[in-house]
Amino acid sequence: MLYALKIAGRYLTASKAQTGLLVLGVAVGVFIFIFMSALIGGLAELILSRTVGDIAHVSIQAEPEVPALLLAGAPLLVQQKSSTTAANLPTAANFIALIESLPGVRAVSPQISGAGFVTHGAQVAQVSINWLMPGRESAIANLDGYVVEGTARLGAGSILIGKRLAEDLNLLLGQSVRLSSTKGIETALTVTGIYQMGAGGPDRRTAYVSFGTARTLFAMPQGLTRVEIKLTDIYAADAMAPQITALTGLTAKSWTVDGAQFLEALSAQAKTGVFLKSFALITIVIGVASALLLSTYRRRPEIGIMRAMGASERFVVLVFVLQGALIGLMGGLLGAALGYAALLPFPAGGQFRTGSLPIDIKQGSYGLAIGLTLLGAILASIWPARSAAKVDPVTAIGQ
Amino acid sequence: MSALVVVQDLVKTFGAGLTETPVLRGLNLTLQTGEVSALLGPSGSGKSTLLTILGTLMQPTSGAHQMLGCDLVRASDSARTAFRNQHIGFVFQFHNLLPDFTALENVIFPAAIRAGRETTVAQARGKDLLARMGLQDRIHFPTAHLSGGQKQRVAVARALMNRPELVLADEPTGNLDRASAGQVMELIAQINQDEGTTFLISTHDEKIAALCARQLVVVDGQVQG
Questions:
Q1: Which residues are B175's β-sheet partners?
Q2: pLDDT per position as a tens digit, B141-190
Q3: CA distance A343 to A382
Q4: Facing residues of A193 across strands?
Q5: Residue B30: C-alpha distances to residues B13, B53, B64 (Å)
Q6: CB–CB of B199/B4 below 8 Å?
Q7: pLDDT at position A217
Q8: What is the dihedral of CA B147, B149, B151, B157, to 10 degrees?
Q9: What is the C-alpha separation between A309 and B160, in angstroms, rounded?
């Protein structure tokens, strides 16, 4: 093995220009692999942060009560199921600390929410009214980050609305509005903050109010309507939801229940990445195989001499496989270094700048790129090496 | 002296059907341990084919070939490869050194293959052989920087590296000037005397043949003499 390694190394250093070009070719393939990994990984992260990043990964929502049977006997009298009345989770608050302590849970946001109307002068808009626990305004969506005017902190008599809603109602910071719930309760509030998520729906249809306001509007002296949970790994939601249900007795739902199509799109994007990276690897394998095939052809007389001196077929195979491995290793390391250097100007950890490529330097898959290149180069060298070992020494020496 | 190599009814035919060409036709030969023999004969008489078969680089079409009591016709390819490494040395007409290696690396190549690395013992033996060839100041020279005569002396040293019982030399002086050819033959005689190595030297040169103790002439695929 050691001696075969020495010969392989000598063959590589004997023709430095040729080896340099070959290593550079492999490095370019590795560079593409790493660049694609960082780009596709970054893109996935960007999509996730801009979509799933702002929603609850698991949510506990109160189920509306089953309409009660008002009168027994025939004819039956029933109450129609209400779509506007906020259902109550009377015991949910007791479980907040427990849910927070679960491994994989990043944040928990207890909420009171329901439907209502904002009135400004003669203009009326339907909104979803939400209360978020103070200090947890950005637990699910980064509300603090989205505030463009005023503050996300809500006190008594204040309301935080989306920029679209403010535009629709010609509202400015500090102006008053009237907010009425579906319970028919109305209150006057002052706009203390305007946010912009960049999504039309929330920016136009969601308003945030203080705890006291929410309780008053929905006539809910106790309990919650919803608990939103954010996880460190969004793909763990399917496993986490039944776990929370089992622990609390409340019905927890994973985001994937309503996000199957989005998951499918993410999966398709990941597959595209695998294909692109596979093509880069195939290019490396073909490059190494063809270069080694040429090398073995050029060295046929030497292979014949080695065989005449008593070198076994296995030894000859080992020499050329090691040559391929050295090329793969050098090309892999060089390509990884070049890839890392090229990705350095991009911000790390998904801090993407608007308008720039969504590249995440941490997702370059450097080790994987080097490992796969080494493996690919070894596999690519087996065929040329085996054909070299089959060289007839008499014919080869005669060349 | 005892018989080192015994060949009986050796037949080698190339091609098949209309292109079938018999080269060796029932050749018989015995080489005694420690003798230096010249193999003479016109071009195409089968000298090189015989050397190739004796060197286990080629299998005969039929016949028996034994060396050191081993049946080399029935032996597997890997067994013949190992046997060749251990017991047979080659000197070719065109030195056939590995061009990217130094003189010493070329000489110790057969030993390094056997051991899997370049041992200090092999390096000492290699240096000693090169010194005996008068190349002590060329030990670490790349072979490309050596003259034709020097390359051939390196090739002789390489052939002797594993202390083989038999060295097969195919026109070892054919590509050398008279002085270099004389040097190589002197070395062969000296090694034969010092180590008792058996040499079979294929040559067209009557003067070279005359330096050998025995002359074998191959005519029409058979040995005469």
A1: none
A2: 999 889 888 898 899 899 999 999 999 998 888 777 787 788 888 888 88
A3: 33
A4: A150, A160
A5: 21, 14, 11
A6: no
A7: 87
A8: -150
A9: 11
Residue A214: name the closest of A149, A155, A172 by CA. Answer: A155
**CB contact at 8 A, B11 and B62:** yes
Q: How far apart are CA A30 and CA A343, in angstroms?
A: 13
Give dist(CA A289, CA A376) in Å, integer: 10
- How many beta carbons lie within 10 A of that of residue B222, not counting itself? 17
CA–CA dist A130, A152 (Å, integer): 13
Cβ pair B100:A315 closer than 8 A: no
CA atoms within 13 A on the CB side of B213: 13
When the pLDDT of each residue in chain A is averaged and rounded to a whole number, the result is 84
Residue burial A146-185, b: 16+ Cβ < 10 Å; e: rest: bbebbebebeeebbbbbbbbbebbebeeeeebebbbbbee
Q: What's the pLDDT tens digit per position in B93-143?
A: 787 898 889 999 999 999 999 888 889 999 999 999 999 888 889 999 999
- What is d(CA A39, CA A365) in angstroms, rounded to the nearest whole number? 11
Surface-to-core class of residue A365, CB atoms within 10 Å of its CB (0-12 exposed, 13-18 middle, 19+ buried): buried
Distance CA B186, CA B194 (A): 12
What is the 3 state secondary structure string of B57-80?
CCCCCEEEEEECCEECCCCCHHHH
> What is the 8-class DSSP label of residue A369?
H
Q: What are phi and psi of A154, to 5 degrees?
A: -115, 125
Instruction: Report the Cα–Cα distance between both ends of chain B, in Å, rounded.
Output: 18
Name the percent of chain B lying above pLDDT 90: 52
Q: How many CB atoms lie within 10 A of CB A56?
A: 25
Tell me which chain A residue has its CA closest to the CA of residue B160: A309
The identity of residue B119, as a single letter, is T
| C-beta atoms surrounding A84 within 10 Å | 11
What is the average pLDDT value for chain B, to the nearest integer?
89
Q: For residue A65, what pLDDT is reported?
A: 59
Neighbour tally for B59: CB within 10 Å: 15
Phi and psi at residue A106, to the nearest 5°: -90, -40
pLDDT in tens, A137-186: 777 887 888 889 988 888 888 999 999 999 989 989 999 999 998 888 88
DSSP state of B223: E
Kindly give, in sequence order, each residue whose CB lies less than 8 Å from that of residue A245, ignoring residues fewer than 6 positions away: A251, A252
Nearest chain A Cα to B96, which residue?
A: A305
Residue for token pair 């029932």? B26
Interface test with A, best of B49, B50, B77, B90 (most A CBs within 10 A): B90
The residues that bridge with B179 in the sheet, in sequence order, are none
- A10 vs B100: CB contact, 8 Å cut-off? yes
Question: Which segments in chain A show pLDDT lower than 50?
Answer: 83-84
Query: B164 and chain A: CB distance < 8 Å anywhere?
Result: no
Q: Residue A154: left (phi > 0), alpha (psi -120 to 50), or beta?
A: beta
A44: β partners: none
Residue of A nearest to B158 (CA): A309
In angstroms, rounded to a whole number, what is the distance separating the alpha carbons of residues A142 and A19?
Answer: 52
The minimal CB distance from B110 to the residues A2, A301, A310 is found for: A310
A307 interaction partners in chain B (CB closer than 8 Å): 57, 81
